[in-house]
Design brief:
Length: about 375
């Protein structure tokens, strides 16, 4: 584990990046390596695991602060094999060190180390097709989350045993220190060295969670994706984040939506745009063409004399308004394709056609010539 890459390097950001910059970098990397976009690609799968681990640490203010000061050893007690190989030893809880210096992150810690605490929120990304985003769907989302260890029920103690109240601090997790100064005796509170601020001592740690009381597991949840959802919008699933501590509630799961690009359609707001190629003859004479829509194929009558770049609208053929009534429209841009690789007979027919046309047949060309006369 000693060759683990720097988490900032993994996400492609600089140390000191803001919360928004970290989130943006994670979403970009998720799009780059997500298994849904790279099926059966083992390298992309490993990269995605690395990205998830980096984001898990850097998105948590407390873990990020530990990592910034102590590196991987600050967030992984087994880094460098622990014990003598670890710069801090196996039994030191760096979170308690930080709490004693700064009073904890995101607010003052409870004076009771056994008070229930809410679990942290986590994020994941799920990719859907263009059609699924337009019409809505259900997706089974797989993600990693911290869960309460089932073998010890979160106590951290092996089955048949239980944690004991720390006699050094009386279960408070803190001890009072009296210091003599020139101004008299000063009382300060600091984290208990014996129980590391936990208030309890686990003499026989659970073999499943190594005494932590929690373990990371793969979880699944079915998410309803509403019709009309857009790229990078977020759905929150309550109480599906990391498990709480001491019986506290779980955090939330935030699901970012990624929409795969469509080979034909482009989304602009709730409208759908596409291009349809037609022949010169179809444009000149008019024709019935087949147009793809989100609801299937429809027929449309191209009028005689259609010009390149003309746009026609199919009402209510766009995307469902998110949590609202009605739909957007579909806009279809006409592209007149000039034929290539013509035979001798085809070339001769076009020449004959051209010789039998004049400025009356070409309004734009006539207008252009009239402008030139005015200039010269």
């Amino acid at each position: 584990m000693a060759d683990k890459r720097d988490f900032y390097e993994v996400l492609g950001i600089n140390k000191g990046a803001s919360e928004d910059e970290i989130k943006k970098a994670y979403r970009q990397m998720a799009k780059k390596y997500h298994p849904d976009l790279h099926p059966d690609d083992k390298e992309a799968e490993e990269k995605m695991k690395e990205v998830n681990e980096a984001y898990e640490i850097l998105s948590d203010p407390e873990k990020k602060a530990r990592y910034d000061q102590f590196g991987h050893a600050g967030v992984d007690p087994n880094y460098g094999a622990g014990g003598a190989g670890s710069p801090f030893g196996q039994d030191i809880d760096l979170g308690d060190i930080f709490s004693s210096f700064f009073g904890g992150f995101g607010g003052r810690r409870s004076s009771n180390p056994n008070a229930p605490r809410r679990g942290s929120d986590i994020e994941t990304t799920v990719y859907v097709s263009f059609e699924e985003a337009a019409k809505g769907c259900k997706k089974t989302v797989q993600y990693q989350a911290v869960s309460t260890c089932k073998d010890c029920n979160g106590t951290g103690a092996e089955k048949g045993t239980s944690p004991k109240t720390c006699t050094a601090c009386g279960g408070r997790g803190q001890v009072t220190i009296n210091q003599r100064t020139p101004f008299g005796t000063v009382q300060t509170m600091r984290t208990c060295d014996v129980c590391k601020g936990r208030g309890k001592i686990v003499e026989t740690p659970c073999h499943t969670c190594n005494g932590r009381g929690q373990i990371k597991r793969k979880k699944t949840v079915e998410v309803n994706i509403p019709a009309g959802i857009n790229d990078e919008q977020v759905l929150s699933v309550s109480s599906h984040g990391n498990a709480g501590i001491n019986g506290g509630p779980a955090g939330d799961l935030h699901v970012y939506i990624g929409i795969r690009p469509h080979p034909v359609f482009e989304r602009r707001g709730d409208d759908v745009w596409c291009e349809i190629p037609i022949t010169f003859a179809q444009a000149a004479l008019g024709s019935t063409v087949t147009v793809p829509t989100l609801d299937g194929k429809v027929s449309y009558e191209i009028h005689e004399g259609t010009q390149p770049g003309d746009i026609f609208k199919l009402k209510q053929k766009g995307i469902q308004h998110l949590r609202g009534r009605g739909r957007g429209d579909q806009y279809v841009k006409v592209v007149i394709e000039v034929p290539k690789n013509l035979s001798s007979k085809q070339k001769q027919l076009i020449k004959e056609f051209d010789e039998n046309t004049n400025d009356k047949n070409y309004a734009k060309r006539k207008s252009f010539k009239d402008k030139l006369k005015g200039l010269f």
